[in-house]
Amino acid sequence: MDLNCVTLDVRATRPGGTWSVEAAADTAADLDLRTDGNGFTLRTDDPVTVGLDEGRHVAVGLPAEEGTHLEASLNAGDTTFDLAGARIGRLEVDGNAVAMAFDLSDATVEAVRVNINAGAASMQLASGSDIGSIDLSANAGAMDVCAGPGVGLQITMLDDVAVGHNLEDEGLIQDGDVWRSPDYLSASTRIDITLRGERGRVHPEP
To answer: Residue 72 — φ and ψ, nearest 5°?
Structure first.
């Protein structure tokens, strides 16, 4: 998906289900939707315009199964990824001047990559979350990661990272470039996050 100035809601459907895209007629007129046997591409061709997202709403349903991969490039809008309990493959999202919320509670995801530029993103994790890897990049943006009870975090700060954070305030322990929850090794769910970027901030929260 490549969308400008759209309020986007992405939800996981039942395993074995099909892709779906819903939009009002006036919004649909601004969308270019193309399908093939394996999925779809969705894009808007209009330029980014302040206030254009008002009233432009798109809802996407995707099958909650391991063969599902989602790639999205989003500019100037609000997006919700409600993938709680889903089992999918890769989730890759680039956001520019956009607010994004990810619910990965009890989700199984092969890999997550989120790049936020001049925007904000939040991510909800729970003890039932099984995430192969999470790669976060915050450039003049903010990322809040909320890890529920039983979740141990290991956050690796890459050499070129220049972001503010509250890792120590939240009780994480530093070992070189790596920060870990005190109970990381004994936690029922362990999630590894790689962090990169400039002029951003990351806040892990209980």
So the answer is: -145, 140
